[in-house]
Write a structure and sequence with these properties.
Elements lengths: L2 H32 L5 E5 L2 E8 L13 H23 L4 H24 L2 E7 L18 H24 L1
Antiparallel strand pairs: 1-2, 2-3
Helix pairs in contact: 1-3, 2-3, 3-4
């Protein structure tokens, strides 16, 4: 692939990541302006909008640490994003792969922005299902945000991409 086509392809994937960051930050700004910390509003029997501050990582991992985790996770997100740009440049023809890592990068950067601005990540989506009661108190899955959703979608797409790649190799 020519250098110009690689650069054009990279631009598309960076734009997708930027859209994820902007959508994530807009929703978090609305939540911060509308909800008090810890406030919850029921939307459906299984879904609440909440405002939760998470200074840790997924499932509040290291949330109780002394503050170093803010810089560690911000640095990790920036390093992962740099690596993702390198991977997109190395594999521009692999559309599903590039989509997946762009979603992961957008989500990671959305949460990095939170860590740098606030010192914590703003989570606001909360689901409750009876079958989760044995795992999570009251059946409430830990709150998350659009950035987390983009990371999860990207990870699922990476798995599908790898399964398809293995299938084609047979």
């Amino acid at each position: 692939m020519s250098a110009r086509r690689v650069a054009g392809s990279l631009s598309v994937w960076l734009l997708l990541a930027a859209i994820v960051v902007v959508a994530d930050q807009v929703t978090k700004t609305l939540v911060l302006a509308t909800f008090a910390d810890g406030e919850s509003r029921a939307v459906a029997s299984f879904f609440n909008l909440v405002r939760v501050h998470n200074p840790g990582a997924a499932f509040s991992f290291l949330a109780g640490a002394s503050g170093w985790q803010r810089w560690f996770f911000a640095g990790l997100g920036l390093a992962a994003s740099a690596f993702i740009v390198w991977m997109i440049r190395a594999h521009p023809a692999q559309k599903l792969f590039c989509f997946a890592v762009s979603m992961i990068m957008g989500g990671a950067l959305g949460n990095v922005v939170d860590r740098l601005l606030h010192g914590y990540v703003v989570d606001f989506l909360q689901f409750r299902f009876a079958f989760l009661r044995s795992i999570f108190p009251g059946g409430y899955f830990p709150s998350f945000n659009l950035a987390d959703s983009a990371i999860t979608l990207g990870a699922a797409c990476l798995i599908v991409d790898e399964l398809l790649r293995v299938r084609r190799a047979r």
